[in-house]
Amino acid sequence: MANYRIFKTDSREVLVIILSLDMTQEYWAKLQNDLNELVMINSTVYLDFLYRNGSSSRFMKTSFNEGCLDWNAVLSTKIPATCQKKADIFFYENYSLYKGSVISEYKRQLLYKRIQNFYNL
Protein backbone atom coordinates (compact mmCIF):
# COMPACT_ATOMS: atom_id res chain seq x y z
CA MET A 1 0.00 0.00 0.00
CA ALA A 2 1.21 3.50 -0.80
CA ASN A 3 2.09 5.79 2.09
CA TYR A 4 -0.20 8.46 0.71
CA ARG A 5 -3.04 9.29 -1.68
CA ILE A 6 -2.87 12.21 -4.12
CA PHE A 7 -5.91 14.24 -5.21
CA LYS A 8 -5.94 17.17 -7.62
CA THR A 9 -8.46 19.67 -6.32
CA ASP A 10 -8.03 22.24 -9.08
CA SER A 11 -5.47 23.16 -11.70
CA ARG A 12 -2.95 24.54 -9.18
CA GLU A 13 -3.83 22.74 -5.93
CA VAL A 14 -3.08 19.20 -4.84
CA LEU A 15 -4.03 17.38 -1.64
CA VAL A 16 -1.78 14.59 -0.39
CA ILE A 17 -3.21 12.46 2.40
CA ILE A 18 -0.39 10.83 4.34
CA LEU A 19 -1.14 7.28 5.58
CA SER A 20 2.05 6.47 7.44
CA LEU A 21 3.77 6.95 10.76
CA ASP A 22 7.11 7.13 8.93
CA MET A 23 9.01 10.37 8.80
CA THR A 24 8.30 12.27 5.61
CA GLN A 25 11.85 11.93 4.27
CA GLU A 26 11.25 8.16 4.00
CA TYR A 27 8.92 8.69 1.03
CA TRP A 28 9.61 12.31 -0.05
CA ALA A 29 11.49 11.33 -3.26
CA LYS A 30 8.76 8.89 -4.32
CA LEU A 31 6.11 11.52 -3.61
CA GLN A 32 7.99 14.02 -5.79
CA ASN A 33 8.14 11.47 -8.63
CA ASP A 34 4.42 10.69 -8.32
CA LEU A 35 3.58 14.40 -8.32
CA ASN A 36 5.72 14.91 -11.43
CA GLU A 37 3.52 12.41 -13.25
CA LEU A 38 0.22 13.86 -12.04
CA VAL A 39 0.39 17.61 -11.56
CA MET A 40 1.53 20.75 -13.27
CA ILE A 41 4.59 22.59 -12.08
CA ASN A 42 4.08 25.63 -9.89
CA SER A 43 1.32 24.07 -7.80
CA THR A 44 0.47 24.37 -4.13
CA VAL A 45 0.57 21.04 -2.32
CA TYR A 46 -1.48 20.60 0.84
CA LEU A 47 -0.44 17.71 3.09
CA ASP A 48 -2.87 16.03 5.49
CA PHE A 49 -0.92 14.49 8.38
CA LEU A 50 -3.96 13.34 10.38
CA TYR A 51 -2.65 9.75 10.39
CA ARG A 52 0.72 10.69 11.90
CA ASN A 53 -0.04 13.88 13.87
CA GLY A 54 -3.69 13.57 14.83
CA SER A 55 -5.69 16.79 14.80
CA SER A 56 -2.79 18.94 15.98
CA SER A 57 -0.55 20.03 13.11
CA ARG A 58 -2.84 18.17 10.73
CA PHE A 59 -2.43 20.32 7.63
CA MET A 60 0.76 21.61 6.03
CA LYS A 61 1.44 23.23 2.70
CA THR A 62 4.40 23.59 0.41
CA SER A 63 5.06 24.45 -3.19
CA PHE A 64 5.81 22.16 -6.10
CA ASN A 65 8.00 24.05 -8.55
CA GLU A 66 9.94 22.70 -11.50
CA GLY A 67 9.39 19.10 -10.41
CA CYS A 68 10.50 19.53 -6.80
CA LEU A 69 8.67 19.83 -3.51
CA ASP A 70 10.09 22.64 -1.42
CA TRP A 71 11.11 20.80 1.75
CA ASN A 72 12.29 24.05 3.38
CA ALA A 73 8.94 25.79 2.89
CA VAL A 74 6.61 23.27 4.57
CA LEU A 75 4.31 25.35 6.77
CA SER A 76 1.39 24.58 9.05
CA THR A 77 -1.71 26.05 7.45
CA LYS A 78 -5.45 26.30 7.24
CA ILE A 79 -6.39 24.65 3.97
CA PRO A 80 -9.02 25.67 1.42
CA ALA A 81 -12.54 24.37 2.04
CA THR A 82 -12.37 22.10 -1.04
CA CYS A 83 -9.28 20.36 0.33
CA GLN A 84 -10.74 20.15 3.83
CA LYS A 85 -13.87 18.48 2.50
CA LYS A 86 -11.86 16.03 0.37
CA ALA A 87 -9.66 15.12 3.36
CA ASP A 88 -12.67 14.72 5.66
CA ILE A 89 -14.63 12.59 3.18
CA PHE A 90 -11.55 10.44 2.57
CA PHE A 91 -11.30 9.79 6.32
CA TYR A 92 -15.02 9.06 6.53
CA GLU A 93 -14.99 6.63 3.61
CA ASN A 94 -11.70 4.98 4.63
CA TYR A 95 -12.13 4.88 8.39
CA SER A 96 -10.49 1.46 8.72
CA LEU A 97 -7.23 2.73 7.15
CA TYR A 98 -6.67 4.86 10.25
CA LYS A 99 -6.60 1.96 12.76
CA GLY A 100 -2.78 2.02 12.83
CA SER A 101 -2.62 5.79 13.24
CA VAL A 102 -1.83 7.90 16.30
CA ILE A 103 -5.56 8.65 16.74
CA SER A 104 -7.27 6.66 19.48
CA GLU A 105 -10.42 4.71 18.65
CA TYR A 106 -12.45 7.17 20.71
CA LYS A 107 -11.10 10.21 18.82
CA ARG A 108 -11.55 8.45 15.47
CA GLN A 109 -15.20 7.83 16.33
CA LEU A 110 -15.67 11.47 17.38
CA LEU A 111 -14.13 12.72 14.14
CA TYR A 112 -16.20 10.26 12.11
CA LYS A 113 -19.43 11.52 13.74
CA ARG A 114 -18.41 15.17 13.35
CA ILE A 115 -17.77 14.67 9.63
CA GLN A 116 -20.99 12.70 9.24
CA ASN A 117 -23.01 15.49 10.85
CA PHE A 118 -21.20 18.38 9.19
CA TYR A 119 -21.59 17.02 5.65
CA ASN A 120 -24.96 15.30 6.28
CA LEU A 121 -23.61 11.88 5.33
In short:
The protein is an alpha+beta fold and 121 residues long. It is 35% helix and 25% strand. Strands 1, 2, 3, 4, 5 and 6 form a six-stranded mixed beta sheet that branches.
Structural commentary:
This protein is 35% helix and 25% strand. The longest helix is centred in the last third of the chain and has 14 residues, at 105-118. The chain is built from 4 helices and 6 strands, in the order E-E-H-E-H-E-E-E-H-H.
H and E string: EEHEHEEEHH
- Overall mean pLDDT stands at 91
End-to-end span in angstroms?
A: 27 Å
Give the low-pLDDT segments. Answer: none
Count the DSSP helices.
4
Q: Quick one: overall form?
A: globular
Largest sheet: 6 strands, mixed
Notable features of this structure?
121 residues; six-stranded mixed sheet
What is the strand and helix layout of this fold?
Elements: E1 4-10, E2 13-18, H1 28-38, E3 43-48, H2 50-53, E4 59-65, E5 68-69, E6 75-76, H3 81-93, H4 105-118
Parallel strand pairs: 2-3
Antiparallel strand pairs: 1-2, 3-4, 4-5, 4-6
